Amino acid sequence: MAVEVANESEIAVDETSLTGVCRYVLGELDVSPLAELSVLCVDVDHMASLHERWMGEKGPTDVLAFPMDELDTARPDDPEAGPELLGDVVLCPAVAIRQARAAGHTMDDELLLLATHGVLHLLGYDHMEPDEEKEMFGLQSSLLEGFRSAPRHQVTGEALPER
Predict the structure, then answer these.
(1) 20 to 30 A Cα–Cα from 122, which one of 18, 65, 99, 115?
(2) Dihedral over alpha carbons 101, 102, 107, 108 (to 10 degrees)
(3) CA–CA gap between residue 74 and residue 143 (Å, rounded)
(4) Which residues pair with 37 in a beta bridge?
(5) What percent of the chain has pLDDT over 90?
(6) How far, in whole angstroms, is CA 2 from its chain's centroid?
(7) Rounded CA gap, 116 and 23, in Å?
Protein backbone atom coordinates (compact mmCIF):
# COMPACT_ATOMS: atom_id res chain seq x y z
CA MET A 1 0.00 0.00 0.00
CA ALA A 2 1.32 3.39 -0.91
CA VAL A 3 1.03 5.90 1.92
CA GLU A 4 2.66 9.26 1.41
CA VAL A 5 3.10 11.58 4.39
CA ALA A 6 4.04 15.22 3.87
CA ASN A 7 4.62 17.63 6.73
CA GLU A 8 3.95 21.24 5.78
CA SER A 9 3.44 22.36 9.37
CA GLU A 10 6.04 24.02 11.55
CA ILE A 11 5.91 21.12 14.03
CA ALA A 12 8.03 17.98 13.68
CA VAL A 13 5.95 14.81 13.42
CA ASP A 14 6.84 11.12 13.36
CA GLU A 15 6.16 10.46 9.68
CA THR A 16 7.25 6.82 9.97
CA SER A 17 4.62 6.10 12.63
CA LEU A 18 1.92 7.92 10.67
CA THR A 19 2.75 5.84 7.60
CA GLY A 20 2.78 2.70 9.72
CA VAL A 21 -0.58 3.27 11.38
CA CYS A 22 -2.24 4.06 8.04
CA ARG A 23 -0.81 0.90 6.45
CA TYR A 24 -1.86 -1.10 9.49
CA VAL A 25 -5.44 0.18 9.38
CA LEU A 26 -5.74 -0.42 5.62
CA GLY A 27 -4.30 -3.92 5.99
CA GLU A 28 -6.54 -4.86 8.91
CA LEU A 29 -9.60 -3.72 6.96
CA ASP A 30 -8.55 -5.73 3.89
CA VAL A 31 -8.14 -2.73 1.63
CA SER A 32 -6.48 -3.57 -1.67
CA PRO A 33 -2.67 -3.59 -1.53
CA LEU A 34 -2.82 -1.30 -4.58
CA ALA A 35 -4.50 1.42 -2.50
CA GLU A 36 -2.91 4.86 -2.37
CA LEU A 37 -3.35 7.34 0.46
CA SER A 38 -1.94 10.78 1.18
CA VAL A 39 -1.49 12.24 4.68
CA LEU A 40 -0.75 15.95 4.93
CA CYS A 41 0.18 17.82 8.11
CA VAL A 42 -0.62 21.52 7.93
CA ASP A 43 -0.45 24.61 10.11
CA VAL A 44 -3.40 26.18 11.92
CA ASP A 45 -4.12 28.81 9.24
CA HIS A 46 -4.18 26.26 6.43
CA MET A 47 -6.42 23.91 8.42
CA ALA A 48 -8.77 26.77 9.33
CA SER A 49 -9.13 27.70 5.66
CA LEU A 50 -9.84 24.07 4.68
CA HIS A 51 -12.30 23.69 7.54
CA GLU A 52 -14.22 26.78 6.53
CA ARG A 53 -14.13 26.06 2.81
CA TRP A 54 -15.19 22.41 2.96
CA MET A 55 -17.13 22.12 6.21
CA GLY A 56 -18.49 25.66 6.55
CA GLU A 57 -17.09 25.99 10.06
CA LYS A 58 -14.72 28.68 11.34
CA GLY A 59 -11.39 27.90 12.96
CA PRO A 60 -9.04 24.98 12.68
CA THR A 61 -9.97 21.37 13.34
CA ASP A 62 -7.83 18.35 14.12
CA VAL A 63 -8.42 16.13 11.08
CA LEU A 64 -10.20 16.31 7.75
CA ALA A 65 -10.69 13.46 5.31
CA PHE A 66 -11.13 14.03 1.59
CA PRO A 67 -12.18 10.83 -0.14
CA MET A 68 -11.50 10.51 -3.83
CA ASP A 69 -13.68 8.70 -6.25
CA GLU A 70 -12.10 5.38 -7.01
CA LEU A 71 -9.89 6.02 -9.99
CA ASP A 72 -9.03 2.88 -11.89
CA THR A 73 -6.93 3.70 -14.92
CA ALA A 74 -6.94 0.14 -16.24
CA ARG A 75 -9.15 -0.79 -19.16
CA PRO A 76 -12.31 -2.75 -18.27
CA ASP A 77 -10.94 -5.84 -20.07
CA ASP A 78 -7.59 -5.65 -18.21
CA PRO A 79 -7.35 -8.60 -15.77
CA GLU A 80 -5.26 -6.56 -13.33
CA ALA A 81 -6.92 -3.73 -11.47
CA GLY A 82 -5.30 -0.33 -11.32
CA PRO A 83 -4.54 1.57 -8.14
CA GLU A 84 -7.33 2.66 -5.81
CA LEU A 85 -6.91 6.29 -4.82
CA LEU A 86 -8.51 6.48 -1.41
CA GLY A 87 -7.97 10.19 -0.84
CA ASP A 88 -6.29 12.56 1.56
CA VAL A 89 -6.16 12.80 5.34
CA VAL A 90 -5.20 16.27 6.56
CA LEU A 91 -3.90 16.64 10.12
CA CYS A 92 -3.13 19.73 12.18
CA PRO A 93 -0.32 19.01 14.68
CA ALA A 94 -0.92 22.29 16.55
CA VAL A 95 -4.51 21.27 17.30
CA ALA A 96 -3.30 17.75 18.11
CA ILE A 97 -0.95 19.17 20.75
CA ARG A 98 -3.84 20.93 22.53
CA GLN A 99 -6.00 17.82 22.41
CA ALA A 100 -3.16 15.58 23.57
CA ARG A 101 -2.56 17.78 26.62
CA ALA A 102 -6.26 17.66 27.49
CA ALA A 103 -6.31 13.86 27.07
CA GLY A 104 -3.08 13.32 28.98
CA HIS A 105 -1.02 11.72 26.23
CA THR A 106 1.56 12.75 23.63
CA MET A 107 1.08 14.62 20.38
CA ASP A 108 2.37 11.53 18.55
CA ASP A 109 -0.33 9.39 20.17
CA GLU A 110 -2.96 11.98 19.24
CA LEU A 111 -1.75 12.09 15.62
CA LEU A 112 -1.94 8.27 15.40
CA LEU A 113 -5.52 8.46 16.66
CA LEU A 114 -6.39 11.25 14.22
CA ALA A 115 -4.77 9.46 11.26
CA THR A 116 -6.73 6.30 12.10
CA HIS A 117 -9.90 8.37 12.41
CA GLY A 118 -9.28 10.03 9.04
CA VAL A 119 -8.62 6.73 7.27
CA LEU A 120 -11.83 5.29 8.70
CA HIS A 121 -13.72 8.29 7.30
CA LEU A 122 -12.14 7.65 3.88
CA LEU A 123 -13.40 4.07 4.09
CA GLY A 124 -16.98 5.23 4.73
CA TYR A 125 -17.21 5.17 8.53
CA ASP A 126 -18.96 8.05 10.25
CA HIS A 127 -20.13 9.08 13.71
CA MET A 128 -23.15 11.27 13.09
CA GLU A 129 -25.59 8.80 14.69
CA PRO A 130 -25.04 7.11 18.08
CA ASP A 131 -24.81 3.59 16.60
CA GLU A 132 -22.35 4.79 13.92
CA GLU A 133 -20.28 6.54 16.58
CA LYS A 134 -20.14 3.41 18.74
CA GLU A 135 -19.05 1.29 15.77
CA MET A 136 -16.46 3.74 14.45
CA PHE A 137 -14.91 4.65 17.79
CA GLY A 138 -14.84 0.98 18.87
CA LEU A 139 -13.07 0.01 15.66
CA GLN A 140 -10.71 2.97 16.01
CA SER A 141 -9.74 1.88 19.55
CA SER A 142 -9.29 -1.72 18.51
CA LEU A 143 -7.09 -0.78 15.54
CA LEU A 144 -4.91 1.54 17.63
CA GLU A 145 -4.48 -1.11 20.30
CA GLY A 146 -3.47 -3.64 17.64
CA PHE A 147 -1.04 -1.21 16.03
CA ARG A 148 0.60 -0.32 19.33
CA SER A 149 0.96 -3.94 20.42
CA ALA A 150 2.53 -5.21 17.18
CA PRO A 151 6.34 -5.41 17.31
CA ARG A 152 7.95 -3.06 14.77
CA HIS A 153 11.15 -2.64 12.80
CA GLN A 154 13.09 0.21 14.42
CA VAL A 155 13.93 1.96 11.16
CA THR A 156 10.78 1.55 9.07
CA GLY A 157 8.06 1.23 11.70
CA GLU A 158 6.61 -1.71 9.78
CA ALA A 159 5.16 -4.57 11.77
CA LEU A 160 7.42 -7.58 12.17
CA PRO A 161 6.05 -10.78 10.63
CA GLU A 162 4.40 -13.15 13.07
CA ARG A 163 6.43 -16.26 13.85
Answers:
(1) 99
(2) 130
(3) 32
(4) 3, 87
(5) 77
(6) 13
(7) 10
pLDDT grade for 122, boundaries at 50, 70 and 90? very high
Q: How many CA atoms lie within 13 A of 20 on its CB side?
A: 24
For residues 20 and 9, give the distance between their C-alpha atoms in angstroms, rounded to a whole number. 20
Give the tens place of pLDDT for each residue, 20-65.
Answer: 999 999 999 999 888 899 999 999 999 999 999 999 999 999 999 9
Which amino acid makes up residue 151? Answer: P
Beta strands in the chain (DSSP E): 2-7, 35-41, 63-67, 84-91
Max CA separation in the chain (angstroms): 53
For the entire predicted model, the pTM comes to 0.85
